[in-house]
Amino acid sequence: MNSRSRRPADIAEGRGPDGDAWAEAASATDPRAAATALLRQSWDAARARAAQRLEHGLGGVEVARLHAVAADEMLTSLWRFATETLYPAPNPTEAERLSLIAVGGYGRGVLAPFSDLDLLFLRPWKSIPRTEQVIEFMLYVLWDLGVKVGQSARKVDECLALAKTDMTVRTALLEARPLAGDERLAEDFIARFRAFVVKADPRPFIAAKLEERDVRHQKSGAVRYRVEPNVKDGKGGLRDLNTLFWIARSLAPESPLGARVMDDLLTPRERRTFEEAFDFLWRTRAHLHLVAGRAEEKLTFDLQPEVARRMGWRGRGDEPAVERFMRRYFLVARDVGGLTRALSAKLEARQQKPTLSLSRLIPGRKRNLGVEGFIEDGGRLSVTGPEVFAAAPEKLLMLFRCADAHDLDLHPDAFSAVSRSLSLVTPSLRRDPEATRAFLDILAQGLRPYRVLSLMNETGLLGRFLPEWGRIVGQTQFNMYHAYTVDEHTLQAIGIINDIWRGKLKAEHPAATEIVHRIDDFEALMLAMLLHDVGKGGDRGQLEDGAIAARRACDRLGLDPRRTEFVVWLVRNHLALSDYAQKRDVSDPETVRAFTELVGDPERLRTLLILTVADIRAVGPGVWNGWKGQLIRDLYQRTEAAFRGEDITRADPLDDYPALMARARAEGAVAEVLDAAKADPATRVAVAAGDRPGLFVDLARALAAAGADVVGARVATAEDGTALDVFELQDGAGAPYGQAEPRRLERLLKALEGAARGQAGRASPPPAPFNPRRAAFDVRPTTIVDLEQSPTAAVVEVSGADRPGLLADLARVLADAGLSIRSAHIAGFGERAVDSFYVTDARGRKPKAGAALERLRGDLEAVLDHKERGGAPLSAPVRASLRDVSEVGRLRPARRPVSRGPEAG
How far is it, in rounded angstroms, from Cα 641 to Cα 102? Predict the structure, then answer.
């Protein structure tokens, strides 16, 4: 843009250094570039000062205001230069009047370091050339500065018309704040807009904002406790608090920040919680932007440690700083949920929020529910007052049992009454028979235990009544395997068991759906599920600390000693079925015998199966798959047969693929896709060929060279020397291998057949792009050599950071040591690979303990300790919080069964 021809020759000389600089910019060959350079100095300096204040501990809201002030100063300087120097109108006509107005969050006077600037260029009526020139020049300069702008240029009547029908526009204008330009134009418009809002029915706007919130939650993850939360748009994030602001402004548009309505709708305690949550989230968001160097709203693993460090968190014991910080984050998110619930209820009470069910449309309906002090109020369960709990504290638990029995949501008045009555939960109440019975009924007999226990968790009652639970509320595990906090994972597992029992998951889990109804003590199962992870973060390890805590909880809840021992056993051994199935050779009779001895009786086996299925499914989306289900079913069925007294012989996995094996014997080698029609998260590929030294190494190399990520594998060899290798494969994006590019899968099958015939090339795997999320984890390599598990082979189990080509490198080390892989069992847990190999020496015998196996251990750990190249993490890697290897080698069989004796034989 050449603006010089449009400038008057007599540009007024500026006074002072800034004025001189702007005069020089106006005279420059390229005024736009000159203005950009001038603004960049002051803009960068102001933002740097705000970042420094943040680093020194200034509150999040104050820092957001500093960024908004910096933007105000930059925009007003640019406006003056554009409207008074480049395109002056000393006596503007009506058509030349123009105002610059901040809208949206920026209009409220808060701004994150890399947030968009939401601007409205307001004119009285249709645009004229000067208006377009001013707007165009300003936008180009802002873009040159690297500022993202959300802008609109509208006339007054157009804004008002849109505000009547478009709730997004109305929301943005609620925060309107004049920045520069024609003051009377801006003030008249804002006055007309506020008058419209005052007269308008607020219910459609409130309904639209709450619906928008629900849609946003679905997009960013409907669960509040996802371990990589979206600070801005996630459930319990800033946008939820902003929604409350917008609702308040719609009810009192003339009140600064809706303060009058907020004071009216929220109690002083709730208002204080609101302000603390708002400040914490703003501070987190500001640090997040600065650490990422962009407008990043998702608190991903690679950013969490540095944000935690900048916010002053330090580790305590074995709990790293990042986990302590994230726990605080989720407790704040929980508070935000409580505020939203409280505000919604008060809006309904004022009939300013549309109700969603017929029962809530009946005014004044308050049905007695058979418990003194409990009432149904507008379709929700409420109480006559907090004195109900003061007179009978056990009613704190009975309230939630009543909600479940009558399928009622909890009225926010009751929610608040519970939260304010937590001091009534004393040691005597925790042992009160009525209270404990109500709690166990909710857990094991409830219609919707996930929903009701989640409500108890939100009020704080669950952690207060069950102190063991209180220690895991909001607890995170710094690893890529678990998608949710520990408490949310556990509650989801409870819900999954309930769904299995009610037949809702019969299509996915037909065996579990049948077996669950054969369990004698369903209550013990549900209690063990609730307590299975309470030992996480303990000094003695998850399993031992969990067993100790479970015993304490069961004793307090009044369980008899036999049932207590059963729950304790389940908690101590809740990983056993998964570990044996995924990391040991289920076809080996010794595996089945060891597991059978550990379990002790069929009732434990049945209960452990249901607990294991729910536990794995609740880890996160896509973690459970048909592969894991088949392994677990195989071990369950073989163990059940052992309890029936049947002889356990070596199962031959090759029997499952007779056609494939026949082709391999005829053609020498064959590779094909298995179960192609199934919608599993990985592609299953089988390779059958004559066994030979180095076969597995060549196959693993071919997979690595093709960029296939091995997330599961099983290897078996028949007596005639035919080997079967089955791999579960994904691509670099975590999708089933070949799904996006079927030709890649075709090429891989040919490469595997060539490798099986000994025609493998020596191509190295393609270098993996640097993954900052994985680089955030310090995954300690470990190796276990177990000479007791199998009488014919050594079991080598390794654990370390997963990476492309890892399996091939491990197989090469084993081959170089003169060991033959009899079977392999590959499992992935987020950033961690856990691989087990049954190996024999060159003569087919079990290796003996000695220097050779010690050297092997060192060589394997050297491969596992490979450091990723190509980039540097934002902060020092943090040790991934996941058990390094399986517990199989540490588990000891029970001395005697604790469930029904007659079946134990």
Answer: 73
Cα–Cα distance for residue pair 298/228, rounded to 1 Å: 7
Q: Are strands 709-717 and 820-829 parallel, antiparallel or unpaired?
A: antiparallel
Counting residues of the chain whose pLDDT is more than 70, the rounded percentage is: 89
Strands 669-674 and 409-410: unpaired
What pLDDT does residue 882 have?
A: 56
Mean pLDDT of 110-134: 94
* Predicted model pTM: 0.86
Helix, strand, coil tally for the chain in percent (to 5)? 55, 10, 35
- Which whole number is the average pLDDT over 659-663? 89
pLDDT of residue 33: 96
The DSSP code for 786 is E
Q: Which long-range contacts (CB under 8 A, 24 or more apart) does 318-327 make?
A: 318/537, 318/539, 319/537, 320/478, 320/878, 320/879, 320/881, 322/478, 322/878, 323/475, 323/476, 323/477, 323/478, 323/537, 323/881, 326/227, 326/299, 326/474, 326/476, 326/478, 327/474, 327/475, 327/476, 327/485
* H or E element at residue 727: strand 722-730
Quote the pLDDT of residue 221. 60
**358 has a pLDDT exceeding 90:** no
Burial (Cβ within 10 Å: 0-12, 13-18, ≥19) of residue 570: buried
Number of H helices and E strands in the chain, helices first, is 37, 18
Q: Cβ neighbours of residue 416 under 8 Å, at least 6 residues apart?
A: 267, 342
pLDDT digits (tens, 9 = 90+) for 500-543: 999 999 999 999 999 999 999 999 999 999 999 999 877 788 89
> Which 3-state string (H, E, C) describes 103-163?
CHHHHCCCCCCCCCEEEEEEECCCCCHHHHHHHHHHHHHHHHCCCCEEEEEEEHHHHHHHH
Confidence of residue 715 (pLDDT cuts 50, 70, 90): confident
Distances (CA, A) of 303 to 27, 217, 326, 869: 45, 22, 12, 18
2 CB-contact burial (10 Å; exposed 0-12 / middle 13-18 / buried 19+) = exposed
* C-alpha R_g of the chain: 33
Going through 569-691 in order, the beta strands assigned E by DSSP cover 669-674, 683-690
Strands 117-123 and 149-155: parallel
- Are 719 and 666 contacting, i.e. CB atoms less than 8 angstroms apart? no
Burial class of residue 305 in the structure, from the number of CB atoms within 10 Å of its CB (0-12 exposed, 13-18 middle, 19+ buried): buried
Strand order in the sheet with 149-155: 149-155, 117-123, 99-102, 177-181
Confidence (pLDDT) at 223: 65
- E strands, 779-831, where? 782-786, 794-801, 820-829
Q: Among 171, 172, 137, which Cα is nearest to 152's?
A: 172
Is 726 strand, coil or helix?
strand
Q: What is the pLDDT of residue 765?
A: 60
Q: Taking CA 482 as the corner, what is the angle to CA 481 and CA 485, rounded to the nearest 5 degrees?
A: 160
Are 598 and 581 in contact, with CB atoms under 8 Å apart?
Answer: no
pLDDT tens track for 281-315: 999 999 999 999 999 999 999 999 999 999 999 98
Locus of tokens 């207590």: 564
pLDDT band per the 50, 70, 90 thresholds, residue 239: very high
